[in-house]
Design goal:
The chain is an alpha/beta fold and 263 residues long. The protein contains eight helices and seven strands. The protein has one domain: NAD(P)-binding Rossmann-like Domain (Rossmann fold, 3-Layer(aba) Sandwich). It is 48% helix and 14% strand. Strand 1, helix 1 and strand 2 form a beta-alpha-beta unit. The longest helix has 29 residues. The two termini are 28 Å apart. Bound molecules: nicotinamide-adenine-dinucleotide (NAD). Nicotinamide-adenine-dinucleotide binds next to helix 1 and helix 6. Nicotinamide-adenine-dinucleotide (NAD) binds next to helix 1 and helix 6.
Length: 263
């Protein structure tokens, strides 16, 4: 299937590694031009070089911290200056830290709200005028399977991410007349640095080995394995494409069957 992504301009947030990087790769393979961003300039530039060398698409790496509101405005201005438009926005950021409710302090909550919710609000708000003008857009919000089934020990994610889903649904209604679709993607467990860190953390807490924790986790995934980030990237590329033009206001779990609820 030809996805119709050639020469579309995509801004993929938090994309130097992990799921964001996999999304950037999959869009580039379909011929989209990219702006990628993350905090670490060196790692980000290496990712941009990798993508450029293999796919030949234009990739601009712009280093920013997604908790900085002014830098987000700068990022969108730069994207529009560089390409004159932005067709696709994929919001993403590092995950909030694990922790039980009683351990988390005021500052943990404030920082996580900035990273997990406000970065999404700011990125999305800043791209809407350009998308409205061209009467076409794809906004895809990164969430987590935790919005469908809370995950033990991930209080901040369980509590803050549902706000992103509320935003996704509300915006999908408001932006539909301008042919802008808004959806959320909810990964289960993919093999990335974030998940490795969570496994290590849980192993330490429960005094079990990392291998045992991983085995226990995989036993809850019907497909019997963690996802490969590429599998996530392909799904997002479809949602970002011309072909997904009638899909909006939906939250998709991509989780190997991990979530046990009906919806
Ligand atoms: P990762 O740690 O592998 O990658 C995170 C990316 O975000 C990196 O590029 C990092 O540089 C960037 N980043 C982190 N903080 C940033 C900041 N303040 N400003 C700019 N960039 C920043 O994580 P991942 O596994 O790819 O996860 C991405 C998101 O998806 C996270 O929010 C995570 O919680 C969520 N998620 C992941 C999984 C999974 O299976 N991997 C499951 C559910 C939810």
């Amino acid at each position: 299937m030809e996805l119709g992504l050639k020469n579309k301009v995509a801004l993929v947030a938090a994309s130097s590694r992990g799921l964001g990087k996999a999304v950037a790769w999959s869009l580039a393979r379909e011929g989209a031009k990219l702006v990628i961003c993350a905090r670490n300039k060196k790692v980000l530039e290496e990712t941009a070089d990798e993508i450029l060398m293999e796919t030949g698409v234009t990739v601009f790496p712009l280093a920013i911290d997604l908790t900085d509101a002014e830098r987000i405005d700068w990022l969108i201005r730069e994207t529009l200056d560089l390409f004159g438009k932005v067709d696709i926005l994929v919001t993403n950021a590092g995950g909030p830290p694990p922790g039980d409710f009683i351990e988390l302090n005021e500052n943990d909550w404030k920082k996580s709200i900035e990273l997990t919710l406000m970065s999404v609000v700011r990125l999305t708000r800043a791209v809407i005028p350009a998308m409205k003008e061209q009467k076409w857009g794809r906004i895809i919000h990164m969430a987590s399977a935790s919005v469908k089934q809370p995950i033990q020990g991930l209080f901040l994610s369980n509590a803050i991410r549902p706000a992103v889903i509320g935003l996704t649904k509300s915006l999908s209604q408001e932006l539909a007349p301008d042919q802008i679709t808004v959806n959320a993607v909810c990964p289960g467990y993919f093999s990335t640095n974030r998940v490795k860190e969570l496994l290590r953390n849980k192993a330490k807490q429960s005094k079990k080995s990392v291998e045992q924790i991983e085995k226990d986790l995989i036993s809850q995934i019907p497909l019997g394995r963690m996802g490969n980030p590429e599998e996530f990237g392909y799904f997002v590329a479809f949602l970002a494409s011309e072909r997904a033009g009638y899909v909006t206001g939906t939250s998709f779990q991509i989780d190997g069957g991990f979530v046990k609820g009906l919806m």
